[in-house]
Design a protein that fits this description.
The protein is mostly helical. It is 80% helix and 0% strand.
């Protein structure tokens, strides 16, 4: 987990971008803005998501090109983990397909945006990597 501390600036920038995308998404959908408790939870979740994405980008092979791997890693994580979790959760609570699709697209924008920010700023390899 040392890579998180070494790469705190790109992770923090990606976290801020994720929160901004969420804020804009809520405003465009006409949803009310969350309270402090929800915002704090979103802040932690966005930070953790950016941290995991940074770790995946550090470990990603570079054969396909840096930008392809950055955006491709975000897409693979999104389709492999985010979409199934949202689909199952939203289905269990009786939320419709349009709401599931909206939430899934929101997270796709967040993950691709975070990957672009993290890659654009650059990552440092942890010692011994």
């Amino acid at each position: 987990m040392i890579y998180i501390f070494i790469n705190i600036w790109p992770i923090a920038a990606a976290t801020f971008l994720g929160l901004t995308i969420g804020f804009v998404w809520l405003r465009l959908s006409g949803s009310p803005l969350p309270g402090r408790r929800v915002f704090a939870g979103a802040l932690l979740a966005e930070f953790w998501l950016a941290s995991i994405l940074a770790g995946a980008l550090i470990l990603a092979p570079s054969q396909a090109g840096a930008w392809v791997m950055a955006l491709g890693s975000a897409l693979v994580i999104w389709i492999g983990f985010v979409v199934p979790v949202l689909w199952v959760t939203f289905s269990a609570y009786g939320m419709g397909a349009s709401r599931t699709l909206s939430a899934s697209l929101h997270w796709l924008f967040v993950m691709v945006g975070q990957a672009a920010v993290i890659h654009g700023i650059g990552l440092s390899q942890p010692p011994g990597a």
